[in-house]
From TrEMBL:
Belongs to the triosephosphate isomerase family. Pathway: Carbohydrate degradation; glycolysis; D-glyceraldehyde 3-phosphate from glycerone phosphate: step 1/1; Carbohydrate biosynthesis; gluconeogenesis. The gene is tpiA. This is Triosephosphate isomerase. Homodimer.
Length: 263
């Protein structure tokens, strides 16, 4: 890869009330203020925050007023535009709040809320239909890793999640590789091991969409990323950035990751 895209996305999970979310995003703006800013982000790093859905409106209002280079994403969404689906949030509702990204198929959603590759695929298609960039997650469990099944499992998740899509859809598509055993545990994958799996993901995408399309798809690593380890991941050939949980909940630590993800 030549000049690769660099993306840092914060997944706030089920943390922060709407008021706390406003403080956090304002604090983040301040922390990033000394970096050169343009449409693409901060000094070449695209920055996305994904608050809980009840915070989207208040964070949107801050971003709309202050116009920082921070982009907004959601953590989940349903695949229908509207209807009798109690408790769900639709792509139209996200679009209305200038939510340009949505995390889909996070391992916590697969584990606790019964998401499957099939439902992830429906959501991915709905997101693309509405010009929302999916951040589609995949990742193996410790058991699968120890049984030597990482590559085959990841391949099935990638192929299942992208079923029925075309090469053109890949222009607005992000993958996050998050080994389940590294999420929230303080245990990170070795950067070279993460890079190997990410290269495999790229090869799987190339087999379906062609090498050119696959080359340009940003693939992030996720799992206990911090300001102190992001540079090692960014130094790898195929890693375009990170999906950050815990360390995105404080402006200083998240801004530290953004700063250390620069070229
Ligand atoms: P973590 O979470 O950074 O707290 O490990 C990552 C994620 O689940 O997206």
């Amino acid at each position: 890869m030549g000049d690769k895209r660099r993306i840092i996305a914060g997944n706030w999970k089920m943390y922060k009330t709407a008021k706390e979310a406003v403080f956090l995003v304002q604090d983040l703006e301040d922390q990033l203020d000394d970096l050169a800013q343009d449409d693409r982000g901060y000094d070449g790093v695209e920055v996305i925050v994904c608050p809980p859905s009840t915070d989207l409106k208040s964070v949107y209002t801050v971003l709309w007023q202050d116009k920082p280079a921070i982009k907004l994403g959601a953590q989940n969404m349903f695949w229908e535009d509207e209807g009798a689906y109690t408790g769900e949030v639709s792509p139209l509702m996200l679009k209305d709040l200038e939510c340009d990204y949505v995390i889909l198929g996070h391992s916590e959603r697969r584990m606790y809320f019964g998401e499957t590759d099939e439902t992830v695929n429906k959501k991915v298609k709905a997101a693309l239909r509405h010009d929302i960039t999916p951040i589609m997650c995949c990742g193996e469990s410790l058991e699968q890793r120890e049984a030597g099944k990482t590559d085959s499992f990841i391949e099935s998740q990638i192929l299942g999640g992208t079923e029925g899509l075309e090469a053109g859809d890949m222009k607005s598509f992000i993958v996050a590789y998050e080994p389940i055993w590294a999420i929230g545990t303080g245990k990170t994958a070795l950067p070279e091991d993460a890079n190997d799996v990410i290269r495999h993901i790229r090869a799987v995408l190339a087999s379906r969409f062609g090498t050119d399309a696959a080359q340009d798809i940003p693939i992030l690593y996720g799992g206990s990323v911090k300001a102190g380890n992001i540079a090692d991941f960014m130094a790898e050939s195929d890693i375009n950035g990170a999906l950050v949980g815990g360390a995105s909940l404080e402006a200083e630590s998240f801004a530290g990751i953004v700063k250390n993800a620069r070229k």
